[in-house]
């Protein structure tokens, strides 16, 4: 489990479509979970950066397959018991890929209907692993206001219209929907 509070802006060292190597200040051991742009991956080596195996399921549901050497990535180690929950509950299970509509104030992201149905104004969403508050909604997307710290310390400050981003809807909304359907 993660909180959506990015701990390091890492750099891709290499990615061959299966093995991703990232240069980061985060210390992680073999088998540890780390969120990379919102996708939960498992550390398989930590000799020249952190290495992760990326499987076809992940490549098909995220933007990770587009990464190349030198790209910046948002990194967050898994939450440990007793650490503060500074963002919201984020699983690292990307629901879909969204598209940046515009990058003004606020930033608008177009999202598939199966993500939008879990979005509410002032609710939570993770965009490329960053915990954000939804400022507004329309029929095709949502808006988020990005504070200067988030713009400087994550990849979100580099977004351009048309960019693809990983989206994870609030897991609590998914559980509420499931439980309500059974009632």
Characterization of this structure:
There is one protein chain. With 183 residues, the chain is of the alpha+beta class. The chain is 15% helix and 37% strand. It has four helices and twelve strands. The strands form two sheets. Strands 1-2-5-4-3-6 form a six-stranded antiparallel beta barrel. Strands 7-8-11-10-9-12 form a six-stranded antiparallel barrel. The longest helix is centred in the C-terminal third of the chain and has 12 residues, at 171-182. The mean pLDDT is 95.
**CA radius of gyration:** 16 Å
Secondary structure: helix percent:
10-25%
The strands making up the biggest β-sheet line up spatially as 1-2-5-4-3-6
Going by helix content, strand content and strand pairing, the class is: alpha+beta
Oligomer: single chain
> Overall pLDDT, averaged?
95
Stretches where pLDDT is under 50 for at least 5 consecutive residues are none
| Cα-to-Cα separation, first versus last residue | 28 Å
What gross morphology would you assign? globular
Number of strands: 12
* Topology order in helix (H) and strand (E) letters: EEEEEHEEEHEEEHEH
Number of helices: 4
Strand content: 35-45%
Sheet with the most strands, sense and barrel status:
6 strands, antiparallel, barrel
Tell me briefly what this model is:
The protein has 183 residues and is of the alpha+beta class. It contains four helices and twelve strands; from the N terminus they run E-E-E-E-E-H-E-E-E-H-E-E-E-H-E-H.
Task: Write the topology of this structure.
Blueprint: E1 8-15, E2 19-23, E3 33-36, E4 39-45, E5 50-53, H1 56-61, E6 72-77, E7 96-102, E8 107-110, H2 113-116, E9 124-127, E10 130-137, E11 141-144, H3 148-153, E12 164-169, H4 171-182
Antiparallel strand pairs: 1-2, 1-6, 2-5, 3-4, 3-6, 4-5, 7-8, 7-12, 8-11, 9-10, 9-12, 10-11
């Amino acid at each position: 489990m993660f909180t959506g509070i990015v701990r390091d802006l890492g750099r891709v060292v290499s990615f061959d479509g299966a093995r991703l190597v990232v240069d980061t200040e985060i210390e992680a051991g073999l088998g540890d979970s780390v969120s990379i742009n919102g996708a939960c991956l498992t550390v398989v080596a930590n000799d020249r950066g952190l290495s992760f195996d990326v499987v076809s399921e992940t490549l098909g549901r995220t933007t990770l397959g587009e990464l190349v050497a030198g790209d910046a990535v948002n990194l967050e180690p898994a939450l440990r018991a007793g650490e503060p929950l500074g963002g919201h509950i984020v699983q690292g299970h990307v629901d879909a890929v969204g598209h940046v509509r515009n990058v003004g104030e606020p930033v608008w992201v177009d999202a598939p209907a199966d993500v939008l149905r879990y979005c509410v104004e002032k609710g939570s969403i993770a965009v490329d692993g960053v915990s954000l508050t939804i400022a507004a909604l329309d029929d095709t997307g949502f808006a988020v206001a990005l504070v200067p710290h988030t713009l400087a310390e994550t990849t979100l400050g580099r977004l351009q219209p048309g960019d693809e981003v990983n989206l994870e809807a609030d897991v609590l909304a998914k559980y509420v929907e499931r439980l309500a359907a059974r009632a």
